[in-house]
């Protein structure tokens, strides 16, 4: 009796869930279809991206929902949006699918030879225009199988939503999810044209900035960029009075060259003008701490070869440029202006 009861209890004990087996049962095609719908915004565009019909995408997602026992999308006649469960599922499965795609790309690149494929690169507008764009020809010549799309945008980079592979950013990096490799220092230099200095003089300390006309830069966030200085070992920020404000750094630079006022700009923008005397430096002794120009990419254990060679090429080429302005040179420059 006891033996029979024991056998019965064993046979009737609930079977433990096996996550690996459950994952095998869940259709990978359904997960890919689901992610494509999220990325494209609707089933029809997802079908176009995957090279299948809208109905096939819908069936794959429906099968996935049945297997998971939950609704992933809220569908109306006008739009498709993620349910609360769908958002959670996307956040958890999307990185895994990305890694699978990356692994397949890596294997394909190893098998097929030289790095190939498409790169989507984002940069701040002025750095991309002045520094990156002129280097693309040399990179393409060395890597003819890699195509590049360069997006110039001063807004923060959303790697996932915007499909960005590599981003070049200015300033201090605070996003722990992103790997940021410092390419070169980012010196900020307060400048005036030689003509402006001759007519109005130059500020001798930070307080005297208020007596001068500033040219301001409006950030992508809508906020006007403050000027930053290092005074007595502490950071000090100034928002100058300005008759001119632009959201384009080239226009800020041109206004300073035209003697319309003074502005604080990155050294890579003004280095040549400082060396040839068109611009003079103001208050180099109060220059802020270096903020850095960074090349950024997602935290991936295995970078595709096309991304790796692009990062290495750009880092080497940018560091070889004469973009760093020494403080001693600025002080000599200022003395000549005085």
Automatic annotation (TrEMBL):
CDD domains: PBP2_CrgA_like. It comes from the Bacteria. SUPFAM superfamilies: Periplasmic binding protein-like II (SSF53850), Winged helix' DNA-binding domain (SSF46785). Residues 32-83 form the HTH lysR-type domain. The keyword Magnesium does not apply. InterPro entries: LysR-type_TF_proteobact-type (IPR058163), LysR_HTH_N (IPR000847), LysR_subst-bd (IPR005119), WH-like_DNA-bd_sf (IPR036388), WH_DNA-bd_sf (IPR036390). Coiled coil: none annotated. GO terms for molecular function: DNA binding; DNA-binding transcription factor activity. Keywords: DNA-binding, Transcription, Transcription regulation. PANTHER family: HTH-TYPE TRANSCRIPTIONAL ACTIVATOR TTDR-RELATED, HTH-TYPE TRANSCRIPTIONAL REGULATOR. Belongs to the LysR transcriptional regulatory family. This is D-malate degradation protein R. The gene is dmlR_14.
